[in-house]
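Predict both folds.
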Amino acid sequence: MISMVKNAAAATVGAMLCLAPGISQAEEVNVAFFLQWPTPNLLAKTDGSYADAMGVDVNWVDFTTGTAMTEAMLAGDIDISYSQGLAPFVTAIQQGAPLKMVGIAVVYEANDCFVRNELGIDGSNASELEGKTVAVPLNTMADFAFRKYMDHYGVDTSTMTIVDQAPPDGAKSLADGAVDMACVFGGVDTASAAEVGTAIMTSEQKVDAGIGSFDIISVTEKFATENPELVQAFMDATAEANEAWKGTQEEIQIVADASGMNLKDTTTTLAGFVIPSVEDQNKNFFNEGGNAASAAASLGLVFKGDSDGSQIAKTIDASFLGGAEMSEAEILSELTALKARIDELADMLK
């Protein structure tokens, strides 16, 4: 009954939005994604499933950092960002950006920071990083990982020279000897950095230290408000692609080509990915006190020194996921908003 009320309300609003003069569905949708980030949904991108589901042209634009995604969203060039890092999202929200988190794209091991091999620095003598130069794509999940690693080892980052570089540039700087450590993400750049450096923390050490990451699906408030049916279709197509993923060699090759990687690096990267189901997202990320809000608040503390948890919570919208039951208060709120919207549209139609 709860789901029926929710779906009926959404359908009514969607139908009236289509009928009201001056209000129309977007004719195309611009979606941001990362190269070197081989998520299963790239199958749906490649075979046109997103465009079929949404009924409009879908333009996919690749980016090197989540901060660049944010800038493009604020400029009106991007409507939906797929697998945007939680860190750049939170940073943007703290600066007043009108964005919403509508889903979890992928859970993965924290990004690596590689130290040049000739320095002989690892976790046992990490204090020797003080005074060194490090390449970090600032306000990204790699930045988050870097700060977590340094905090774990008690390294004073104020003594370090931190250079803001996207992963491709950071990996090159490490290889050229221009920096002592580089924090990167992406299969190709991670592999390049690993050729000349050693990760400051192993996978096992990350688990023991409780350091991990996840990326989100974000939308602009404007796009979500004006085109809720397109956001819903995008999320549905994503869920279908994730559920259909079998991890066959053919699928991996398609995703490798779509993300600009070779088969070997793609296979390695995918092995470290966990793609949460809709059920998992509702149960563990978007539930009351779930991982989405708590991790976002934690990132706020890391980057700003304080964090307004209520402000962050307002930007989290799980309504496009489906499958979650609504409380009586949520039903009342939704129906109240629906009535107000119907009244508004009725006035417009007079």
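Second protein follows, with its predicted structure tokens after the sequence.
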Amino acid sequence: MANILVVEDERLIAGLLKETLEIEGYQVVTVLNGEDAVQYALRETPHLIVLDLMLPGIDGYEVVQRLRNHPKTMHIPILVLSALGGAANKVRAFELGVDDYVTKPFNTDELLARIRSQLRRVQQNFLSPLIGLPGGLQVELAIKHKLNSLDPWSILYLDLDNFKAFNDVYGFLTGNNIIRLVGRICQQMVREYGNIDDFVGHIGGDDFVIVTTPDHAKPLCMQIIDCYKKESIAFYHAQDLERGSISGIDRKGRPYQFPLVSLSIGVVSNQIRRPHSIQEVSYLAAEAKYHAKQSTSNICYISSHREIVHQDPAHATRFSPSSHLPPSFSLFAPGHAQHDVFHVVEEDALSEYEQGVL
């Protein structure tokens, strides 16, 4: 059920809203001021925010402005619930980006109907239907936001290896559950080891993106990989776990042993040289993931001159722009910008790549 943030400084009204919404099955958190609202929204990304405009500290208008200016929260529906019923107040709120406006005193049934409508809208238009994370467009906006900033950043590009073979053997429902597992782990590890405003997005299929800072990139990779190794065991039959592979049929109808589904993470950073476009970032991210899939170690590094370190020389295959790119990264720049990337992988996936099993 949806997680709703109620921002209301009058404790009686906040308590009434919390009780009403929880009766409807929603998970509700209440905060009493605007600054706490912004910090909570960035950290937890609630599904919807019910916001009073008259708040201590920063008012509701500034809360809206700050949330709409950040790619992690810009999609969250904001429903204003305020005693300010004048047309000028409503116009200002809508121009800043609120999605609905209800005046106090309010009718409970009408408020609930408006909340349900906004939750349906955001689910249909902005979020991945499988796991509820921001989708392809939001990923692009998050990356563009970083490109326009002078702050250091790193982009983690996550992808499951041998996933199609797993889907073919275990079925798409179990495959969907593994995708949900990766999304859940990403969110959890970002909360525990990332920054408050780190972005987690679902590009599509089994591809994910995390936008963070260079100092958090490596810890996040290690924790995500470790958590995935432990929790993904539950999805396999005992005999597959014991054997360490999945018995399947390849595309030509021949029996084949596929490795267990592993996780590859390629990381692109702007610390050495700053990429100038999302096309360039998408190219570097795809290259980073490709090399991550070839590595036989858990971590391999590529220097700013693309000299591969800690990688099996037999697998040091040059990335080709014609290789598969995720839906949101379908455009790329063929240039040779210097960059600094490191990659974390679970298993060698060369055979998977050659067979087109993505």
